[in-house]
Amino acid sequence: xxxxxxxxxxxxxxxxxxxxxxxxxxxxxxxxxxxxxxxxxxxxxxxxxxxxxxxxxxxxxxxxxxxxxxxxxxxxxxxxxxxxxxxxxxxxxxxxxxxxxxxxxxxxxxxxxxxxxxxxxxxxxxxxxxxxxxxxxxxxxxxxxxxxxxxxxxxxxxxxxxxxxxxxxxxxxxxxxxxxxxxxxxxxxxxxxxxxxxxxx
Length: 201
Description:
mainly alpha, Arp2/3 complex 21 kDa subunit ARPC3, 7 helices, 2 strands
């Protein structure tokens, strides 16, 4: 694997993990409600495109599934650590459990949406490359992200928050997630030119 390939894979896994942790908090920006994971998670779609371009279809699929497994293991670790009593000599450490002990519904929603949407992103990217070859590389990002990002938002928000918050709040979170993901997609388009093309993409 090339140095750029290692960097892109590492960045993808980091963005996935950081996004899942941050998703535990609902934030408001300019009157828009969204899970805080949306601040970093949208980059994963373009980073997945870079992995696909540089390392190929099999590597992209493997990375998506591996990230899902890693996120499950991360949630399990946080849960186990939150159950182990803290050292009384250190003082109260209840904040750890309050912040990082997983809400399993949110964890499940996040991982299910991530894996499904990212695998769909992979197939759309593959179809685009199969049809257009190396032409219009920037459109690979637009086409794959344009479909998979809103699907990810719909799945995650309704599985995680449906029935917990009112429908209007959930739809507001869905909309803000989609808008931010599209904004990130636009700014991330030039990234597709940062890695060389694998012969069999």
